[in-house]
Amino acid sequence: MKILIVEDEAKVGRFIERALTEHAYTARLVSRCAEARDALSESPFDAIVLDLGLPDGDGLDLLREWRKCGFNEPVLILSARDAVEDRVRGLNIGADDYLPKPFCVDELLARLRSLLRRHNTAPRATVLEHRGVRLDLLARIATCEERPVGLTSREFALLELFLQNPRRVLTRTMIAEKIWDASYDLETNLIDVYVRRLRQKLDRPEAEPFIKTVRGTGYQLS
Ligand code: CA
C-alpha cells in the first residue's frame, strides 16, 4: 500500500512517514502543493494524508482538483483547523476522514486502515462503459458497439485501467506500474505499441480516437 503524505511541518511529516513505514506501508512525504501534484501525476497512491495549510497553497484546493480529475482513493485530512465548519467543508469537498491536530499516531493508523479496508471492499462496477466500448469484467468480454472485440489479457488490463479512470490523464509511469509492475523499462515504447493496438481495435473511421495522446505526459480517454 502506497501512501502520500502532504505535510509541510518537517517533524510531523517525518513522524508520520516513519510510523507508516514501520507498519509496512510505502510512504512518500512531500511538503508543498506543487510536489504533491507531481507525485500524484507520476505514480498511483492508495491513500493520501493531507495537511491543509501548505506554503504554496491550500490542501483543500488540491483535494478539489484531485476529485475533479477522478482520483477516487481515500483522503484523510490532518489539520490544525479543527472547527466543525472546517471539517464539514473538507468532507464536502471529498475527504473521507478528518483528524484534527494534535493527533495520536495510533488513531491516524487505525483510521487509515479502516478507510483502506472500506475502500477495497466497496462493491466495484463489473461492467465499464465509455463511448460505445463496453468491458464486462466478470465475463472478461469486450465489445464495441455491441460487436465483440478480441483482446489479449494485457490489452484487456490496459483498457480496464483507462475505463476505470475516464477523466484522468494516465502517465506512462502510472500505466507501467499498474500493468507491467515495477520491472518495466520506460525507455521502451511498449506502452505506445499497446495503445496503438487498442486504437486499431476500437477506433471507428470518422470518430475521434478512443484514446488520445496527451503530448509529453501520457494518454487519456477522449
Ligand atoms: Ca501545515
CATH T-level fold name of the largest domain? Rossmann fold
Rg for CA atoms: 19 Å
**Ligands bound here?**
calcium ion
Count of helical stretches? 8
Strand order, sheet with most strands: 2-1-3-6-7
Q: CATH superfamily of the largest domain, please?
A: Response regulator
* Low confidence ranges: none
Q: Look at the helices and sheets and give the structural class.
A: alpha/beta
- Approximate shape: elongated
Number of domains: 2
**Mean pLDDT across all amino acids:** 90
Write a brief caption for the model.
With 222 residues, this protein is of the alpha/beta class. It has 8 helices and 14 strands. 42% of the residues lie in helices and 23% in strands.
Layout of helices and strands:
Blueprint: E1 2-6, H1 10-22, E2 26-30, H2 33-42, E3 47-50, E4 53-54, E5 57-58, H3 59-68, E6 75-79, H4 84-93, E7 97-100, H5 105-121, E8 127-130, E9 133-136, E10 141-144, E11 147-149, H6 153-164, E12 170-171, H7 172-179, H8 190-202, E13 211-214, E14 218-221
Parallel strand pairs: 1-2, 1-3, 3-6, 6-7
Antiparallel strand pairs: 4-5, 8-9, 9-10, 10-11, 12-14, 13-14
Helix pairs in contact: 6-8
The structure holds calcium ion (CA).
